[in-house]
Structure formats: C-alpha cells, structure tokens
Amino acid sequence: MWSLDDLRAVDAVVREGSFAAASRRLGVTRSAVSKAVRRIEEELEVQLFVRNTHEVRPTDIGREFHARAMAALNAAEDATAMVRDRHAKIAGVVRVSMPTSLGFLFLDGELARLLAKHPGLAVDVSITDRMVDLVGEGFDVVLRIAATKPLVDSDLISRKLVSGRLRLCASPGWLAANPAPLAVADLSQAPCLLFSQDFEPGRVAAWPVAEGSATSRVPVSGPLRTNSAMALRAAAEAGAGIALLAGFLVSQPLADGRLVELLPGARTASYSIYALRPPSAYPSRAVMTLIDTLQAWLVGLES
Q1: pLDDT at residue number 67
Q2: Which of 2, 15, 219, 288 could crosslink 6 through cysteines, CB 3.0-4.6 Å?
C-alpha cells in the first residue's frame, strides 16, 4: 500500500516536471521517487505521468489525483504538526515588518514582555512605511494599515487584527491658551498639524471629519506638515496644535492626560490593521504567537 511519502513524491514530480528535480527537492534518490510513483500506479492501475526524454507531465487522471490527494496530504501534515507543536517550545527567529507608528509603539514595552515570556524566541523587526515584498524579502509577518476598505491580496494569507478610527486631539496646554473647536467647521480656523500623505502638494489639505449631514471632509491648514505620525503626536503633546491620529497611537497619551480628545461625537475615518503571512500550509508556533500577541496588544490599545 502506498504511503504519505509516496504522495509527497507525486507532488514533487508534478511541481518540478522531472524525477531528477523531484529527487533533489525531497533529498532522496531518483530511484526512490520512481518507485514511489510506481507503487501508486500499480495499486490504482492507472498511469499518473507521461514520460519521455524531454519531460514528465501528469496525465488527466494524474492531475485530478494530485489535486485531491494534496488536500488529504496537507490535512495529515497539519494534524501531525499540531500534535508535535503542542508540546514544542516557542522558539526561533521571526522576521516581521511594521509601519513606523506601530513599530516604535511595539518596541516600547510590548516586545520586551513577549521576549521575557518566551526566552527561546527572537524577533527581527523591520520598521518602515515602504510597501515591502513579504515573500521576496523573506518576512514571516507583515503588518499593514488599510483605510476604509478591506485589504485584499490573493497571494497572501491575511488576518485582521483590529479596527479603529481616527481621533482629534490636542494637549491640555494648547487648550488652556486657545479656544477649543465647538464644531467640525471650526477646524478650518484652527492650527492643525498635518500628515503629508493626507493631501497632494499645492492643494488644500482636508480631514475626513464630519458631523450630522455636513460634508465628510473639512479643509484644514496649519504650521506643521510631516510624513511621520509619531512626529505629529509629539508636536500635539508639545502644544503645537490639533492633530488627527489613529486611535492606537493616542490611546496612552489620552489615558494619562498628555492629550485630550476633541469633538468626540464627530464622525472620523476608520481603518483596520492586518497581519499578512506567506501562503504556507502551517505557520510555526513562533509566528502564530507573535501574531496573537500583536492582536491582543492592538485590541487593548483600541478599546
């Protein structure tokens, strides 16, 4: 009777297009691959591959058998990995890429707690707002922030970690020296701290803030424009003006009084944070532990 190893041999031949390449992929001899395929063909009394001097290609029944058999093979391997991993330590290196605002927050406390809990775990963190190539650059996990609509990438496995909304904030010092906006329209006359990606050069900036039936975007201007959300938060805390920032970024400053939320009843834009990983059948426990930790941390920030 053929085995799961024989199915792996069939899969390798289909993917590589030759017995020699399949043997290299599996780390076994060419003869072992050939015998594995022959066992299945003899058991089922079918021909799975057409062989000639130039190529090896699956027959019609071979393609159908491969497609259905791989589902069974993947399920068996997942079950085996689950049992083994349940008793394994969380260890190894996880490579993760994060946007700047998330990355600096994560390194400021939460990462240290994670590493203290799992001494065998190491995390290689790339902090960048560049759209990285997850597979090409060898990342295990990439975090991305998507505004207004779900993040879709058919080639990657996506998991939504949390959703939130933008929040209008200013420091207590600024509010002591300036009149607080009483309505969304008042923002047009206030010194606003602008994220440079919110507008095109030469055009008036507009924030996605509304109330009642008013327009969903209000024109704003101010003394600071920057491409760093962390810099905007620092400037707002220092009393430079009003900032519109993601909830996860201002959660702690609002809690400890460094910032005060303005117009809490106004409607602001929402966003979601996703964890993307390569389309592997079964990620390591280290990878899933990091993703679970990130989700719990972000939910806490947004709540």
Answers
A1: 86
A2: 2
Question: Last residue of some domain: 86, 119, 134?
Answer: 86
Cβ-Cβ contacts under 8 Å for 71 (sequence gap 6 or more): none
pLDDT digits (tens, 9 = 90+) for 30-72: 999 999 999 998 989 999 999 877 788 999 998 999 888 888 8
d(CA 172, CA 238): 10
Kindly report whether the global pTM for this prediction surpasses the value 0.70.
no
Same domain, 191 and 217: yes
**Domain ranges, residue 144:** 92-162+271-302
Same domain, 19 and 107: no
The pLDDT assigned to 182 comes to: 94
Task: Indicate the number of domains in the chain.
Answer: 3
Band (pLDDT 50/70/90 cuts) for residue 298 is very high
Distance CA 162, CA 45 (A): 52
Alpha helices in 45-165 (DSSP H): 60-86, 100-105, 111-117
